[in-house]
Amino acid sequence: MINLQEETFTIQEVAEMTDLSAHTLRYYEKIGLLPTVNRTGSGIRDFNELDLRRVSFIKCMRAAGLPVEVLIEYYALVQQGDDTVAARKTILEKQRAQLLARMAEMQETLDLLNHKIDVYEKAVLKNEQKLTD
To answer: Is the distance from CB of 78 to CB of 34 less than 8 angstroms?
Structure first.
């Protein structure tokens, strides 16, 4: 007989798998970023694979700098169904443009840091050569 039961996870297991705290996961559920997670008979959160994928997506988007409010708006549109696909795509495109701009700024900062480090390395090398001459 085939077991069709989906694997489920406790909040602690999800926290460990995603490197998010249980507090953060509860907060995401409270503000509607995560839909209400199923619960066991004793009231313990029972995350399924879809919940886990959603948490991973949220974590990735937050790491990229997307505000919680944008993600809430995005998931509200997801709940409304396929009629909102264009609006969801627009949100993601806007966030991509903002992320690319931040990445360009970060690249400029990295280039400046590399230049400054290079200047200091050359100065140290010049001073070391003076000591051996």
So the answer is: no
Q: How is the chain classified by DSSP, letter by letter?
A: ----PPP-B-HHHHHHHHT--HHHHHHHHHTTSSPPPPB-TTS-B-B-HHHHHHHHHHHHHHHTT--HHHHHHHHHHHHH-GGGHHHHHHHHHHHHHHHHHHHHHHHHHHHHHHHHHHHHHHHHHHHHHHHH-
Q: What's the pLDDT score for residue 1? A: 46
Residues 6+ apart with CB under 8 A from 20: 14, 55, 59
Average pLDDT over residues 57-72: 93
Asked if pLDDT for residue 71 goes beyond 80, the answer is yes
> What residue type is 65 in one-letter code?
G
Here the tokens at position 133 are 């001459």
Kindly write down the DSSP assignment for every residue of 47-75, as one continuous string. Answer: B-HHHHHHHHHHHHHHHTT--HHHHHHHH
Angle at 23 between CA 36 and CA 81, to 5 degrees: 30
Look up the pTM and report it. 0.76
